[in-house]
């Protein structure tokens, strides 16, 4: 991370920049309607973090802190949509936003943080392990809604 970098919570004013950054995550995704974006940023327990180089949003992830009735009622965190602009990869920006999200989960009382990826690249898996995640701790299963 450079001295000119700033890491902060994202808000409604950052939606357009975040949607542009998401093109580096899933290039074919259609943007959501504006009301959906407002609903996402207004959802309690869901935070988006962004790393800026000057005015440019170059890395982001989101964190959901989910209430829980096990583990003594302690919540857990889920990190999703980790993305770094292709021109800024390999410089620690992704790690910075993930480490920030983890710190925020711990501050919210979460007892664990879960992250899943659909990437099959072992280098991506090694990246998440370098952030402290253990790929052997749990197994994730995914089901997707059938097309209607």
Automatic annotation (TrEMBL):
InterPro entries in UniProt: Acyl_CoA_acyltransferase (IPR016181), Bact_Acetyltransf (IPR050832), GNAT_dom (IPR000182)
Lipid metabolism keyword on record: no
Alphabetical list of Pfam families matching this protein: Acetyltransf_1 (PF00583)
Keyword annotations: Acyltransferase, Ribonucleoprotein, Ribosomal protein, Transferase
Signal peptide positions on this chain: none
UniProt cross-references to PROSITE patterns, sorted A to Z: GNAT
Domain N-acetyltransferase: 5-148
GO molecular function, one term: acyltransferase activity, transferring groups other than amino-acyl groups
Cellular component terms per the entry's GO annotation: ribosome
Protein name in the entry: Ribosomal protein S18 acetylase RimI-like enzyme
Organism, as annotated: Roseateles saccharophilus
